[in-house]
Design goal:
Elements (H helix, E strand, L loop, with lengths): L1 H21 L15 E2 L3 E8 L5 E3 L6 E7 L1 E7 L4 E6 L4 E4 L5 E5 L5 E8 L23 E5 L3 E7 L9 E3 L2 E6 L3 E6 L5 E6 L4 E4 L3 E10 L2 E7 L1
């Protein structure tokens, strides 16, 4: 009798193990606040890495939000109402959210994805008056426009080693996200120049109303450039 009970308990134990193993594992949503890397009167910017198996709550924002993909992947997005979409994102793509709604993002491909999230502050501002006689910074040869509306224009651009861009005028403030390690020389019409070393994932905010050209002098470099209207 005792032996039969022990055998029955052992069978029940293994059945329970099998059932628990078969149950789906629900990943805990990460809602930890992330400090912005840029915060000024025009824009607030976060650098967010999504890890496979770790869904992340993207907090509600006060105004429109642009998400730029520095490292892409297959992303599952879940809205507050439970609606889910899956998108394959690549470097340089951008998504605009006019309401800045709260939702959950999860990378479901094998590698981490890296998102640059920019909250746009205030209303659109007038362009800087171009009295320089030089063309605007964009479009330029080799540039690719990936998005435009009444708030932003977003470009992808790659520099060619030792080939200067045309001298140009920046008629808008910009957020620039650099993809690689590479050094760019910036030179103004009066011949003054400076070399800036950019690391992969560097995020810069630059004011407009300036004239210069750029030249890749070391490494390789491409970028996502978001012009603010």
């Amino acid at each position: 009798m005792i032996r039969s009970m022990k055998k029955a308990l052992a069978i029940l134990k293994w059945q329970l193990v099998i059932i628990l193993t078969a149950l789906p594992v629900i990943a805990q949503v990460d809602a930890t606040p992330t400090a912005p890397v840029i915060d000024n009167e025009r824009v607030k910017v976060w650098d967010i890495t999504l890890i496979p198996g770790k869904p992340r709550l993207m907090q509600r924002h006060e105004s429109a939000v642009v998400t730029m993909f520095l490292v892409g992947g297959k992303i599952r997005s879940t809205k507050e109402n439970g609606e889910t979409t899956v998108s394959e994102r690549k470097f340089g793509e951008a998504v605009y959210d006019a309401l800045g709604t709260e939702h959950t993002e999860e990378v479901i491909s094998g590698s981490p994805a890296r998102l640059i999230v920019a909250e746009l502050k205030g209303p659109p501002e007038p362009l800087y008056a171009n009295k320089s006689g030089y063309p605007p910074a964009f479009p330029r040869p080799g540039s690719l426009k990936v998005f435009e509306n009444e708030r932003v224009v977003i470009w992808n651009y790659s520099w060619t080693p030792n080939v200067p861009t045309p001298m140009h005028f920046h008629d808008k403030d910009v957020v620039v996200v650099y993809r690689y390690d590479g050094s760019l020389k910036s030179a103004t019409p009066d011949g003054k120049s400076v070399v800036n070393d950019y690391k992969s994932g560097s995020i810069w905010f630059n004011r407009g109303d300036r004239v210069h050209f750029e030249e890749l002098v070391k490494g390789q470099q491409s970028a996502i450039v978001m012009e603010l209207k």
